């Protein structure tokens, strides 16, 4: 277990080969996302981005709560200028721009910034008792870390508007139905399921995984023809990788491939 410096709000577990488990550890505040915690998350994901020994990441808040939102006490007296100068978008970008597959394992509350944090992942595994929501409207605010953008792209206008404008909370089963989560499990299986999936992803060819993630995310913001061009170019690029040769040869020889990320 590698614990980051500071108040130790974030822990990174490297005990599983090629997989890192990033755990938010602020239970006394239900993992509320204060500035120091966000800094440590950014530090963790920056470290993992450049760690060639890690191929997949699990992000979790533990078995009780994912993250109950931003730390309102920290924002209570802040002015617009103070909020601007905090540049919290820099911390979020470290997660959003991580090229490796990220799986969020969500138990308990994922509200406000916690819901937005989960949506930075590529796959969301939720326990049956998990609750998602963007309740900022109830305190005179609005989502400020992607809630009006990523949520729209995930669930569409009408589900997103209901959640954002009313502050409605959505249980895991409904979140699955509307497209906010990838899979629902028993609460005690959320993290093990995410780890098992991460282990499976970690055995995949890393360059191909990174190209899939990059092209899929970039294509959200471009016309279809441009997205198809990005996809085609990335597809062609993979034909120069050693992993492509290994994968095809292993298929022909009816054996398991061994990918090296080359």
UniProtKB/TrEMBL annotation:
A GO MF label: hydro-lyase activity
Pfam families per UniProt: ECH_1
Xref: Gene3D superfamilies: 2-enoyl-CoA Hydratase, Chain A, domain 1, Lyase 2-enoyl-coa Hydratase, Chain A, domain 2
Biological processes annotated in GO: fatty acid beta-oxidation
SUPFAM superfamilies: ClpP/crotonase
InterPro entries named among the record's database cross-references: ClpP/crotonase-like_dom_sf (IPR029045), Enoyl-CoA_hyd/isom_CS (IPR018376), Enoyl-CoA_hydra/iso (IPR001753), Enoyl-CoA_hydra_C (IPR014748)
Protein name from the UniProt record: Enoyl-CoA hydratase
């Amino acid at each position: 277990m590698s614990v980051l410096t500071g108040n130790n709000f974030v822990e990174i577990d490297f005990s599983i080969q090629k997989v890192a488990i990033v755990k938010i550890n602020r239970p006394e505040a239900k993992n509320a996302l204060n500035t120091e915690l966000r800094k440590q998350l950014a530090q963790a994901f920056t470290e993992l981005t450049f760690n060639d020994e890690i191929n997949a990441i699990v992000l979790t808040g533990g078995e009780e709560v994912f993250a109950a939102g931003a730390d309102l006490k920290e924002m209570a007296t802040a002015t617009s200028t103070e909020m601007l100068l905090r540049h919290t978008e820099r911390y979020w970008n470290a997660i959003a721009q991580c090229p490796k597959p990220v799986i969020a394992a969500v138990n308990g509350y994922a509200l406000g910034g916690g819901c937005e944090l989960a949506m930075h992942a590529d796959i969301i595994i939720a326990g049956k008792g998990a609750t998602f929501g963007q309740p900022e409207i109830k305190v005179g605010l609005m989502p400020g870390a992607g809630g009006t953008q990523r949520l729209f792209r995930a669930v569409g206008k009408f589900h997103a508007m209901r959640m954002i404008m009313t502050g409605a909370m959505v249980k895991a089963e409904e979140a699955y139905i509307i497209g906010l989560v990838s899979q629902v499990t028993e609460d005690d299986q959320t993290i093990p399921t995410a780890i098992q999936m991460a282990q499976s992803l970690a055995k995949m060819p890393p360059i191909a995984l990174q190209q899939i993630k990059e092209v899929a995310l970039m294509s959200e913001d471009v016309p279809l023809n441009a997205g198809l061009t990005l996809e085609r170019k990335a597809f062609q690029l993979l034909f120069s990788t050693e992993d492509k040769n290994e994968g095809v040869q292993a298929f022909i020889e009816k054996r398991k491939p061994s990918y090296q990320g080359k």
